[in-house]
Automatic annotation (TrEMBL):
It holds the Pfam family Metallophos. This is 3',5'-cyclic adenosine monophosphate phosphodiesterase CpdA. Keywords: Signal. Residues 1-33 form the signal peptide. The keyword Signal applies. Residues 42-241 form the Calcineurin-like phosphoesterase domain. PROSITE patterns: TAT (PS51318).
């Protein structure tokens, strides 16, 4: 990571309904400098859990507004082609109306970062809302889909389904019962078979572990990813801590949660740099570790 000098920036944002003017000294930020022209840049954030409610344990729900502000400043320098939010954008509210307010409050600054955005559904996104309500709130049509950019094919997965195939919504599920149902798996296999590009997958619940944080049928999902032969890496959230596993040539990289811990030093977000030869570099900020995949 290179350090560059930049003037301090003054930005306005709304915190708890109050307009805050934040003077952010660039000297206090770990800044990232640009490199190869053909490389594709993607901004990543996960587990923001935004809610206008007091902290619960290590989760500082209100602070994600300020933390996202720093990520926005960082992304602004690199101008990523798109940004991906890897799930749990919001935390639970006591009513649908309040939850929709939380969603608007966090999605407004997130939307300002980049015109091109992708949202992975997290279990907390549909704890109070229905999937269609969340998707409508962020202006996204589908919960799982794929798209191409340059030499890469990107897949957004939705693991918010119970083992009986019923979609998560309004507390009708146990958070440990995450599954990718047969119809989505069939779609995934056909989608991957139709591309020759390097593939990067975005998921919320983990595809690499068998504990409570893992998608229950993730062995089946991994088999589909491995059969494609083109999948380079899977980026995921959900367990809130840095982790990395390589299984049969695919890197499963778990990103740190933005909501964990108080203060700017406990932020976490990252910038992905994808080279045309399939080399992937993740530059992590604050608590997010750097990663290199070849
Ligand atoms: Zn979470």
């Amino acid at each position: 990571m290179n350090l560059v000098n930049a003037p301090s920036t003054r930005r306005a944002f709304v915190l708890n309904g109050t307009l805050v003017l934040a003077a952010t000294s660039a000297a206090s930020l770990p800044l990232y400098a640009a490199s190869a022209e053909d490389d594709l840049y993607v901004g990543l954030v996960t587990d923001l859990h935004y809610a206008d409610k007091p902290a619960g344990g290590s989760r500082h729900y209100r602070e994600t507004l300020r933390k996202l502000e720093e990520a926005a400043l960082q992304f602004e320098r690199q101008q990523p082609a798109f940004v991906v939010e890897l799930g749990d954008l919001i935390d639970a509210a006591d009513s649908v109306d309040t939850e929709k307010k939380y969603l608007r409050a966090i999605n407004q600054p997130f939307s300002a970062i980049c015109d091109s955005r992708h949202y992975v559904l997290g279990n907390h996104c549909v704890d109070t809302l229905k999937k269609e309500e969340f998707l409508e709130g962020v202006g996204q049509e589908k919960s799982y889909y794929s798209f191409d950019h340059g030499d890469y094919h990107f897949v957004i997965l939705d693991s918010c389904f119970r083992s009986d195939g019923v979609a998560y919504e309004r507390k009708n599920f146990k958070w440990t019962d995450a599954n990718i149902p047969a119809a989505e798996l069939e779609w995934l296999a056909a989608d991957l078979a139709a591309t020759k590009k390097h593939v990067v997958v975005f998921a919320h619940q983990r595809l690499d572990v068998n504990n409570h944080h893992g998608v229950r049928n993730n062995a089946q999902v991994r088999k589909v990813l491995e059969t494609s032969g083109n999948v380079k890496a899977v980026f995921q959230g959900h367990s809130h801590q840095n982790d990395l596993n390589e299984i049969n040539g695919i890197h499963y990289c778990t990103l740190v949660a933005m909501v964990e811990g108080s203060g700017a030093e406990n932020n976490g977000y990252s910038l992905l740099r994808l080279a045309t030869d399939g080399t992937i570099r993740l530059t992590g900020f604050r608590n997010q570790l750097d990663r290199d995949f070849r």
